[in-house]
Every structure is written in structure tokens, then in C-alpha cells.
Amino acid sequence: MNISELLNLAYVSPPYEIIDYKKITDDIKNLHISTPKKTKKQTNKLNKGELSECKVKCVLLSLKNSGQSLNNVFKRITKLENFPNNEIKNLDFKITDLDDSDSLYDIFKSCNISKKGGGFKADVYINGIGISLKSLNNAKPSLINHTHRGNFIRVCNKLKIDINILDKCIKEYHQLRHEKKIMEDVNNSDDNSPFSKIKTYFIKILKYFLFEGTGTKDSKQKAEYIIFTSSDNDIKKWYIISKESTIFFDKMWEHLTFSIRHKAMPKNYPNIDQNKFKKISKWTEIHQGKYKGSLHVRLSTNIIDILGESLKFDELSL
Question: 174 and 186 in contact (C-beta within 8 Å)?
Fold first, then answer.
């Protein structure tokens, strides 16, 4: 029933019929009046990070189409894929097409550009090499998402390193928090940071989370490089980090922020399976009325402030 029919019903009903005006009003409110959908709204299916990721893939496609080199590591781009055997291509695409923000979703579709799958570390493949894309346009990038001790045990076992070293740091972290010497977030530049003294040990863990997997599993699509972007469509503002880089990890160490939070703790903790409780409880204490036992690590400042404008591309692969 459309609006006209509802209004006619109200006016032509016999005088002895009781008309439920409230129902008619509610029916009118509940009518769905369709309006043409704008393409721009379709990009809302992507969050800010995913939108940035897709735009960077467009820039890479433009470089491939024009035969330009990205840097001395990748030389000329001859093959570009979302993941192996899923090619990104559109010979007609030009970088200026991105200026039309209303058509972004259609552009992504025409180039077969998609966001990465869950648990994948590589967002894109350049000449068969897996690359992780991290935008600096939004929040400071997370390097290790909230992960409790049970999952860290799996990672440490895989890397053949002793989790007891990390246990001691986190025990000290909780003590310092109770003494109000540190806040929930503690930066490695803080003299009180219990994590600042385990650089060589922890960088092995950090590299695993950045390039190889998560607390729960190894990634099916690992990354060999990370491209940090402070501008989606200007490659002069991209930083390409190699897994084997020493410069980047040395420079960023004091700019890491560590925190132990409630997020990603098991539901109903501490009323969980006893074996699981034993693993997790070593890192878990109550702060602000919540059980907090998940480690989170992120950059505390913009990567440009860490590395400076001069260090780009090839230097960071060393």
C-alpha cells in the first residue's frame, strides 16, 4: 500500500468506521521509499584502512601500466596481484581516475582490486613478492594486536625462544602500574618501561607478527616487505621496509608503545578451562575493575618523525 492509498482510506471511510490514525501514521513512516544509490556510499563497505589499501593498489597498477619503477628493490612491476593467481589489471586505468571520489568503488571493481583475506599478512603481491600495506593516515598503526599469553606461548614455541623473559617484563609492568609509576600505555622512551631492555629478543617476536602470522596461526599469505604510506597516491611519501631491515627496527624501537589491556581476553575469564587459565593468568591482573592480560604494541609516533624525510625505499631494505 502506497502513501496515496493510505491517505485515501482515511478520507473516504464511512463516518461510522473507527479509523486508526496512529496505525496509518506508523504505516506511512515504515514505508520504504527507494532512492538511487550513489557509488560513493558503496565505498563505506570498506573501513578507512581498507579504502587506503585499495587506493595504494590503484597507484601500483598505474606504475605497472606506465612501465615506471617503484624503487630499486622491485624495479619495473610486471605482475600485480591481490593474492597469487588473482591478478589486478586494467590497461585503461590512469592515476588521475582516483580524482573522482564518487567512482572509487567502480574503479576498484574494474581493476579487480579487493581487500585482503582474514589472517593474511600480505595485502598485495608485486612480481610474486608478498607486501603488507599500512596506512599512516588514520590511527598510529598497530604492530601487535591484543594477544593474551596463551597465544604468545604458541609464537614463542615456534620461534624457539623462552617466554619466561616476556613473563618477567609483564610482571614488572603490572607492579609499576599498581605503584602508579606508569600508565596503561608505556613507551620505550620512558626510563620505566620494562620492555625497553629486551630489544633483540622482542624484535624476533615483532617480525613474526608483522610478516608471518598472528597469535592463533601462521598466515597463509606471508609478507616479505611492508609499505607504510602517509599519502595513498604519492609514492614519495611511502616507506618500504624489508623483513631483514636493521635500520628500521633500530630506529623505531624507542617509539614503540606497549600496553596490557582487557580486549581479546577470553569470554567469562577467569571461569574458563583450567589449562587455558593456567597459561593466561600469568599475565593477567585487575586494573580499573577489569581483568587485563592481552599485550598490545603500536607505534607511538609517525614513521616520518622516526626515519626522517631522507631515509626512503632502498635504505630501509638494508
Answer: no
